[in-house]
Structure formats: C-alpha cells, structure tokens
Prior knowledge:
By secondary structure, the chain is α+β, with helices and mostly antiparallel strands. Helix content is about 25%, strand content about 30%. The chain has a seven-stranded mixed sheet, sandwiched between helices.
Amino acid sequence: MVLLFNMNESSLKKKLSKLNFNNLRYFDSIGSTNDEALAWAAEGAKDLSIVIADEQTQGRGRLNRKWFTPKGSALAFSLILRPSASMRPHLSRTVGLAALSIADSISRIGLKPQIKWPNDILLNGKKTAGILVESVWSGDDVDSLVIGMGINVYKPSVPPAEFLQFPATSLEDELGSELIREDVLSGILGAFLHWRERLGEDELIKAWEELLAFRGGQVEVKSGGEVPVTGRVDGLESDGSLRLRDIHDKSVIVRFGDVSLRPSA
Ligand code: BT5
C-alpha cells in the first residue's frame, strides 16, 4: 500500500515562519507554482515570498517541457527573490544557489547528490529534482527572480518511464526509509538562506563545482537547434557557465543546454 501524506498548511506556515518565510501561498492543486509566483512578483510580492503546491497540473521545465508533480508525493514550490544591489552582479549564479540548497539538504539526510549542470539534481545517476529560474523585468533591469524547485520525495512522484528522456528516482527510493516532506522543505530553505548570503563568493562556485556530475568525463551539450558541443567536463566559470575541454585541450564555455554523457566516448 502506498501512503500519501497530505501537506498541512498551518504546520507548514508555522515551520516556515521560523525561517522567516512569512509570505506563503499554499495550494492543494495549481497549474504551476512558477506562474503563480511570477504573477505575485509582478504585483509586488516581498523578497522571500513562497508559493507551494501539493499537486501541479501544468508544472513546467525549461523550454516549456513538462514537470510531473502528482498529488501527495513531491515538493513543488517557487521562491520570489528581490535581489539586493550586492547580489545583482551575480544573478547568473542563481540556478547554482538553488541546486546547492537542494544538494546540501539532501546530503544532510545521508544521500550523495550530484548536480547535472545546470539544473538537475541526481542521485545514483538518476534525476531527483529540477530547477526553473525565471525573471520579472522592469525595463532593462531584473525586478525579481522566481526560483522554481521540484523535488521527488516519495516513490509515486517518479514519472512513468515513457515520460522521461533521462532516468528518475525519488528521495524515498534512494534512502530506503521514511522521510517527511515538510522536513525536506525546511532543510532546503535553510540551506538556501545560507548560500544566498554567499551568492557573490568564490565558495559558492567551488561548492557547486565539487558536486558537478560527469566531472572529467566526455559529454555532449545540446543547446537548442545547434550542433551539440562536445568535450570533457572541466569545471565552472565564475558566472556559473560550464567549462569543457575539447579534443585540442582548448576551453569551451557553455551558457545554456542539456548535458549528457557521450555513450561512444
Ligand atoms: C527542469 O526542467 O528540470 C525544471 C523543473 C522545475 C520544476 C519546478 S516545480 C515548481 C516550479 N513550478 C513549475 O512549473 N516548475 C518549477 P528540464 O531540465 O527542462 O527537465 C524537464 C524534463 O524532466 C522533462 O522533459 C521530463 O523528461 C523530466 N521530468 C519531468 N518531471 C520529472 C520528475 N518529476 N522527475 C524527474 N524527471 C522529470
């Protein structure tokens, strides 16, 4: 029998207010928490406002790909960030900030996450979480950022295989024991507050780099319709771009794309 744990809105609010996340919108079911957060941000939501849903019916990945969030089994939430002046030069690192927050909190429960650049968290080579960062603009400036995170917590959150190009898993599958969704959420938000203070520091890039999946391995990066870039994963640039080494040992910098191991290499 599969046990599904409903989120309890009042205990969620109590728990998150301890971390100073006081502006919370909770939904039993919603299209996409990122859509709600983008609208709320445009209406002037405060820094660190958060939208959480038990189920998403139109969850989104990058390039309008679908993100699966069935009822009662996953974490799906979007944080609104109003960047301070000191954060502004480093906003391209935001996806790393989110990835580290998830990875750190997962490590603390005894798992060994890796970050598949730029936005996937892997456990045993399988996707456990994804991140979608979107911006609200005011003229030429970023007014706010919406950081959407989807984490597969309990087993039923893992999509059917036909839905996937890359294998997926859940925290429960990998841990092999029970865990509580709201505790996972608090862990991630606590880590987020820690890393957000360090957005501009080298320490963040170093920690992100240490968790990079496929480091030293030959990969292929597909960005849109272009010919894939290939090379060996070398590390990260200070803006969070991925640095590869090509066959001539020349650096190749990638700013956007989907990384996969080269099966023939
Ligand atoms: C992502 O995109 O991984 C970003 C996912 C962000 C989801 C959060 S949930 C809260 C917030 N609200 C939203 O609407 N979105 C954010 P991408 O790298 O493009 O990966 C998308 C691909 O991951 C899909 O094409 C599927 O193959 C796969 N996928 C979908 N749902 C999955 C799941 N639950 N677990 C593992 N893989 C999944």
